[in-house]
Amino acid sequence: MPLASIPDEVGLSAPRLRALVRQDLGIALAHLRRWGRRRTAIASLPDGAAALAAATAGFADQAHLTRTARDFMGRTPASLRPSRSA
Asked: Is pTM, for the whole model, over 0.90?
């Protein structure tokens, strides 16, 4: 769901929704949305390629996912894959 459509979905103005999220969660709404996209992409990694995980989660491309993961977690998506040694 695009970030701009969330206020309409919940019946609040955009500034009020941003203020409530910051007040209750202590982080910006955009940051919360990026967190969700990273989580979606990382959850998709064991099943397929990083490029597919990036597209599924709404990143522009694999490089965008890689930069975002490295900036946020200090690790690349490939380093987050579970090992297949079983």
From this structure: no
